[in-house]
What does this fold into?
Amino acid sequence: MLTDNQIFAAPLAGVTDRPFRRIVREFAPNAPIVTEMISCHSLVGGHKNCLRNFDRYDDEAPIGAQIFGADKDLMAEAARMLQDAGAGWIDINMGCPVPKVATRAGAGAFLMRDHKLAGQIMHDVVRAVKIPVSIKTRLGWDSEHTDWRDLLGIAADCGVRFATLHGRTRAQLYLGPAVWPDVSDCPIPVIANGDIKNADDAMRAMRLGYSGVMIGRAMLGRPWIIGCMAGGDAPDKIGDVVLRHLDYAVEYYGAAVAVPMFRKHAAWYSAGMPNSADFRIRVNRIVDVSELRDAICEFWGCDLPCQIL
Ligand SMILES: Cc1cc2nc3c(=O)[nH]c(=O)nc-3n(C[C@H](O)[C@H](O)[C@H](O)COP(=O)(O)O)c2cc1C
It folds into this structure.
């Protein structure tokens, strides 16, 4: 059985924001959680429209702040800013496949094609901060270029403390089964990622030499999964968890932003339950937060339309 400090919560843009992380920690207090990816340009440029540029992490531990970008000076500066904001470690995104990041910005997964630039970024970020630095990468750019071992070797030489390996190439995006290669002879600890959904998957990965596992999509609608994989119980009253998550989101974003943003969470929480399609249709029309609370209470049969904050 793994303990919750060996089971990482993956960075999921649009999902693992502060309210979601708060819910995950209620079930797995020691789980290392990685923030959504943060653009070094947006952070260093002080872009005001991005709330997460102003997050503080002092009350969240353990937490890794993930940055992406292709400019080593901005990446180093962003890392320093996040260290000052209380991050426990810095994670460098070297796996994001979306064109805006990987092709247009030359960041994320593109760094798997340019190991020289990747090395410069890792070198400068490691030297810019006192906290540990990790990377999150994939097997390679495509099936012809699965050179993740070379990148991990460069990472080790630069002083990167550990790496997360998503067992797919950039070309695969999120499709096809993930493969976890044996990492027993890697120079730094490696965390397995990709399709890990339960404790058995996690144990299979650990037998291949991994130091921990990272859970992504299996957390959607089930923020308690890491707690359960570490031996905890799933909640009896899911509706109460959904309401708490909503309240945290309202506190963080304000109701006008939180209500439409919460629709996807409501869909994930209700997936596979009887009448979930009707519930989704209803929730997608709701703009008022008390109406949303009522809909959640009705769907899960909560006792009270509680507002806990
Ligand atoms: C909606 C979504 C958002 C994601 N955002 C990020 C991100 O911000 N940074 C990152 O490194 N990976 C991101 N990923 C990739 C995940 O962290 C993870 O590597 C991938 O989903 C495979 O793990 P899984 O099979 O457990 O989901 C994202 C994936 C999804 C589906």
